[in-house]
Every structure is written in C-alpha cells, then in structure tokens.
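Hey, I was hoping to borrow your eyes for a little while. I've been puzzling over a protein and I'd love to understand its fold better. The fold is given in discrete form, as structure tokens running alongside the sequence. I'd be grateful if you could look everything over and explain what you see. No rush at all, and the record is pasted right below.
>
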Amino acid sequence: MAKLDREALEARSVRLRELIDENPDDKTLWFGLGQALLRLSEPGDAVDAFRNATQLDANYTAAFRDLGRALLESGDPCEAARVFAHAIALAEKTGDLQTGREIHVFLRRAEQASATRKGL
C-alpha cells in the first residue's frame, strides 16, 4: 500500500472513531471503520468493528460478509466459515443476492484454509 493511501486510511479511521464516539449506534460508521481497518491490515480490530455493526443490525449482510473476511485474515478460518454460512442464509432471507454470491466465494476460501489448517 502506498504511503499516501495508508495515511489517508489512518486519518479516515481516526475520524470514524471520533464520529462513533458521538454516535455509537450508527452501524454504517462501524462498518466503515471495519473496512478501513481491513485495508490497513488490522483484521483483529476490524473484527470488533464489524461485530458492532452486526449487533446493531442483525440483517446487515455486508457487515457479516466483511466480518467473515476479517476473521479469515486474522487466522480463524473455522469461525469465518461459520459467519459466512450465517451470512449466506441471511442474504437468501433478505434477498441480497449479489452479496450472497460474493460470500459463497469467501466461504470456499475459509473451508480450504480450515482444511489446510486441520491437515497440519
């Protein structure tokens, strides 16, 4: 990642945290923070942000998708697969078909990573 991109993302995450302090019940702020943290290669912190977004809206399919991505990047493919499976069911229930298709791809990656990990 280019230095300017990283600096912009760090500034964005600082600003999002300030906004969250003012409005902790805004799911989109938590989601945006999670995305910024994922791009900054901070998946553990991103997990926390996405969990907050999904707790605020149990039907937030994109937040569940990215929660799974953050879990996968943080080295927890089993939990990521569980979250992806839940997100797929949620996407079908809510009619969020595009996100559901994306999640299927991530689920396969999580299952492969989990199988590889178990084979070690």
Remarks:
- The longest helix spans residues 97-118.
- The radius of gyration is 15 Å.
- The chain has one domain: 3-118.
